[in-house]
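User: Let's play a game. I give you a shape written as tokens, and you guess the letters that built it. Ready? Here's round one.
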């Protein structure tokens, strides 16, 4: 596992969090995993609607 900082914008507010993601993921699989984490974060924080993924990097 590697820690990644994931950033996204929802309703003109930028959110950022750190999450452990499988280190073997690359390319599309890594982006898909990030999007799953964003959706999970939004559900946990009662954020509804669409989002724009703005960044992902190793933390």
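Assistant: Ready! My guess for every position:
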């Amino acid at each position: 596992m590697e820690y990644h900082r994931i950033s996204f914008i929802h309703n003109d507010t930028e959110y950022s969090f750190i999450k452990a993601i499988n280190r073997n993921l690359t390319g599309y699989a890594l982006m898909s995993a990030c999007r799953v984490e964003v959706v999970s974060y939004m559900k946990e924080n009662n954020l509804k609607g669409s989002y724009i993924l703005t960044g992902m990097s190793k933390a």
